[in-house]
Amino acid sequence: MKSEDRVLVGIDGSDSASKALEWALDYAQMAGLPVRAVSAWAFPVYYGELQIPEEWDIEASTRSAATQQMEDALEHHPDVTAEVVVEFGHPSQVLIEASKGARLLVVGNRGHSGASGILLGSVSTHCVHAAHCPVVVVR
């Protein structure tokens, strides 16, 4: 199996990401491919100031949530080989970089206000325009 023979999916704990993960696992199961789920984290900034409680380990929290999201999804796909990768950075940049070695990138749509069924969110929009492989946006 070549390094390109995997499905990449962006996850962030949201319902949209769960739907994308389910789609990616379904596709991977049919195609006989492994899945790499990528979750990105960054320090939250509010009004130009970094505000993080000292005891909060953002990376560990992100990894825990991503691992749980994957474990929940794998209950329906026990034969799929899957891994979770947690990276520092903006989600669109992390996914675009990770897409260099993927056969397919799967992301959820992230709508705006009342038109959420129509508009793509910023991460999915960036991925559609800049990924290094085909992109599926799951609604």
Layout of SSEs?
Blueprint lengths: L6 E4 L4 H17 L3 E7 L3 E2 L2 E2 L7 H17 L7 E7 L2 H8 L5 E5 L13 H9 L4 E4 L1
Parallel strand pairs: 1-2, 1-6, 2-5, 6-7
Antiparallel strand pairs: 3-4
Helix pairs in contact: 1-2, 3-4
According to DSSP, the number of beta strands is: 7
- Sheet of most strands: 5 strands, parallel
CATH class: Alpha Beta
Helix content: 25-40%
Quickly count the helices: 4
Task: Report how far the terminal alpha carbons are from each other.
Answer: 30 Å
Brief sketch in words of this structure:
By secondary structure, this protein is of the alpha/beta class.
Question: How does this structure look, described?
Answer:
The chain is an alpha/beta fold. It has a single domain (7-134), classed as Rossmann fold. 37% of the residues lie in helices and 22% in strands. It is built from four helices and seven strands, in the order βαβββαβαβαβ. The chain has helices spanning 15-31, 58-74, 91-98, 122-130; strands spanning 7-10, 35-41, 45-46, 49-50, 82-88, 104-108, 135-138. Strands 5-2-1-6-7 form a five-stranded parallel sheet, with helices on both faces. Strand 1, helix 1 (15-31) and strand 2 (35-41) form a beta-alpha-beta unit. Helix 1 crosses helix 2 and helix 3 runs parallel beside helix 4 (122-130). The longest helix has 17 residues, at 15-31. The protein is globular. Mean pLDDT is 87; it is low at 111-115.
Key structural traits:
Rossmann fold, five-stranded parallel sheet, 139 residues, alpha/beta, 37% helix, 22% strand
